[in-house]
Amino acid sequence: MEFQEWLSLFKEQVLATSFLEWFAVIFGVAEVLLARKNNILLYPAGIVSVVLSMYLLVHAMLYAEALLNLYYLVMSIYGWAVWQRNHQGNKALTVSWTNKREMLTACSIVVVGYIILYTVLVRFTQSDVPAFDAFVSSAAWAGMWLLARRKIENWVFLNVSNSVAIPLLVHKGLLMMAMLTVFLFVVAIFGFIDWKRIYKTQYQQQWT
What we know:
The protein is an all-alpha fold. It is built from 8 helices and no strands. Helix 3 packs antiparallel against helix 4 and helix 6 runs antiparallel to helix 7. The radius of gyration is 18 Å and the shape is globular. It starts with a helix and ends with a helix. The relative contact order is 0.12.
């Protein structure tokens, strides 16, 4: 596909985007930006984005994708609850690196999630890219779990997912969504850097 054809397809997708889709994207971007700043408002923003996305996906009869967003909804509520339980005063919840047990759990989520999703996609859907689709989702599952626990490595898992999602979306002709994912990829890089800085500041404060 030549650049002019890509540009034409992108313009068509922008013009065809509904208000609900725009709101879903806007709140999704807001969630990532707020997560980068370690701000609790990331959860309500994420919940709005996920609920709108679920409605759009069900309306488009993409039921498997809607179920994946249901997981994101559950993890957002879980993360919000964890934050509220551990939050003290107006200070942001502390961030930390994963320990060996948490990393093993995250990797297990990727492996088990991949096996389940791949099996479902192959047996019950007409997906022509079940392996890539399953990996993108399972890696994102692990990233969301780590994000809920305020673990710095969540950005790594999310960007592993994004790095596969970008060419997958291009393959499907969803150029606007691919460009959004590129943006999220870049934000996640800065999120990782910011969270490392936050962790360093927390460490220094403990010794002052």
